[in-house]
Amino acid sequence: MIIGIPKTTEAGEHRVSLTPDVVTRLTKEGHEVVVESDAGTAAGFVDEAYVAVGASIGDAARVWSADVVCSVSYPSEAAAAQLKSGAVLLGLLQPLDRADRFPALASTGVTSIAFEAVPRTTRAQSMDVLSSQATVAGYQAVLMAAEKLDKFFPMLTTAAGTIAPSKVLILGAGVAGLMAISTARRLGAIVHAFDVRAEAAEQVESLGAKFVSVDMEQQDSSATGGYAKEVADDTQAKILAGLAKPVSEADVVISTAQIPGRPAPLLLTQQMVESMRPGAVVIDLAASTGGNCELTRADETVVHANVTIEGPTNLASMAAGDASRMYGRNALALMKLFLTEEGVNIDFDDDIIEGSVITHGGSVVHSRVKGLIDGGGN
Prior knowledge:
Elements: E1 2-5, H1 20-28, E2 32-36, H2 47-51, E3 56-58, H3 60-64, E4 68-73, H4 77-80, E5 88-92, H5 102-107, E6 111-114, H6 129-148, E7 156-158, E8 161-163, E9 167-171, H7 175-186, E10 190-194, H8 200-206, E11 210-211, H9 233-249, E12 252-255, H10 270-274, E13 281-284, E14 301-304, E15 307-310, H11 320-335, H12 351-356, E16 357-360, E17 363-364, H13 367-373
Parallel strand pairs: 1-2, 1-4, 2-3, 4-5, 5-6, 9-10, 9-12, 10-11, 12-13, 13-15
Antiparallel strand pairs: 6-16, 7-8, 14-15, 16-17
Helix pairs in contact: 6-7, 6-11
C-alpha cells in the first residue's frame, strides 16, 4: 500500500500527521510511504529524517493520490480533487461541525475516516486523537495564561515581601481541563475546577485542585461516551449563578467545555468578566465552537474591563513536535484496523471502524452525519 503524508497548508498549523518513528514501522511492514516535501519541517522533522527510515519525498499530487492519505485536517478543494476512488482519507475532518462537505467527498468514492468519530471506548484509547491533542492544548493554555497574567503563578517569599499565589479556575475537567489543572498546580497556582459530570469531582481532587460544587444534578456521562451533554435552561441558570463567585475571585479562568456537534456552552457572561479584577486573564479553548465566554472571538485577543480574553483554536500546534508524535501513534493504531497484507479492508463489523467511517462506496454512511446533512439534527 502507498501511504501519503501531505503538508498542511492552513495558516498557523505546524503539525504533521505521521512522524519518522511511525513511518519506520509502516515501511518495515512493507508499505510504501510518500511524504510531501517539507511536510514535517515546521514540527522539527526534516525530509532527510523520513528518507532515513525508508520513505520517499514527493510532490502534493503524488501524496494526495496515494492509497491511504493521513492528513491533519480536511483537504483543500484542490487536494480533495486529487484523491482517487477507493482511497482512504484519515484525519481530523470535522464531520459534525462541517457535515455539508461530505456529500461531495462521498461522490469521489473515497472512504473517509474521522478521528472525531472514533468511539471513546477502552479499546480505542490508543487511537484517540482528540484526547492526545487536548492534552497539548491544556498544557499550552496554562503557559499562555502565565505569559499574559500580570503576576506570578506560585507564592514567592522575597526580600520585598511575600507574593500571593495566583488563583486559577478551570471550567471543564475533560482531558484538556485535567492537563490544565496539573500544569497550573506544577507552576504553584491555587486551582479550582468545575464540570457538570459526576465523576469529574474525584478526578479534579486527585490532582490537588478543589472542585467547585454547584446546586444542580450532576450528569452521568457513561451513556454519552464520556462527554458532557447540553443542559436545560434552569440548570444553565444554576451553573452561571454557582460560578459567579469563583470567577470573580480568579486571576485566570481557563475554559475547556465543549459538546460534540453543538455550540459550546456559555459559562462566562459579560457581567461575570466585568466582576474579575483588572489584569485577569481568560483562555477560552472552546473558541472554535462559539466559546464558553460571551466575549470570546476565535483566534483574537479581546480586552474588556481590563480583562484579557484569548480565543485560541489550535493550541496543539504550538507544541507541534510532541503533538505530531502523539497524532502519528494514534493514526498508526487506527490504520492497523484496516491495513492488511492484501490491501485495505474496511470491516464494518468492527465497532471502531463502524463508528468512525464517514463516507464509503460513494455514500455518506455515518448516521449522525447523515442526520445533520438531512437537517434532522444530531
